[in-house]
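Chapter review. Work through the record for Macrolide ABC transporter ATP-binding protein before attempting the end-of-chapter questions.
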Amino acid sequence: MPLIEVKGVTKTYVTGDIETPVLHGIDLTIEKGDYVAIMGPSGSGKSTFMHILSFLDNLTTGTYFFEDTDVSTLSSDKLAMMRNEKIGFIFQAFNLLPRTTVYDNVALPLLYSKKERGRKEVESAIASVELSHRITNISNQLSGGEKQRVAIARAIVNDPDVIFADEPTGNLDSKTGTQIMRILQRLNNEGRTVIMVTHEQDTADHAKRIVLLRDGLIEKDAPVKHRRFAEEGEIRK
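Structure tokens for Macrolide ABC transporter ATP-binding protein:
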């Protein structure tokens, strides 16, 4: 059973009498444990597609099955619960709470979760991104790379099935970006599914597979031929 299966997905935004079609019929299957980079030029529909996959937006037509559940049949409350418990988000802009400690930022998803998780899991998530020494620091006191690592810890604290990363290295220098890719690579090696939107080829090459969108359609879906491994700082064939 695939983790994600979409067929014929379209998305049209309607503002008054104006209709703006963005996605024109997308078919895609993602297996559990995959690492997919979604690429495409500005306006290709990649962010819209990611928002649909992560339950942040609704498709217009087509079908979307997540773990064999038809997403279109779910209530808004059920979708919100799945979004909180099944999915972790990493954003380009970090989206941390200002003037709030690292611990409290990472613990935030647990406030809305029915899972039995608490201090131990929060501390473990923070340790996994090597920020235990910053656990009581206010988020405003952190560097960009540290903020993104806090965002990753927050994304994994609920032990999600899939991690969505939207331009995770977009606001970082290359060295710090490599650290972030190393963490995402490790999470995937541990069995988590990673779906990443990026416009950077070097970043996409860390994935196992690249899906290229153009004008709201999949132009190419292929394995990465020369995959980059941040752990070793090298490219393997």
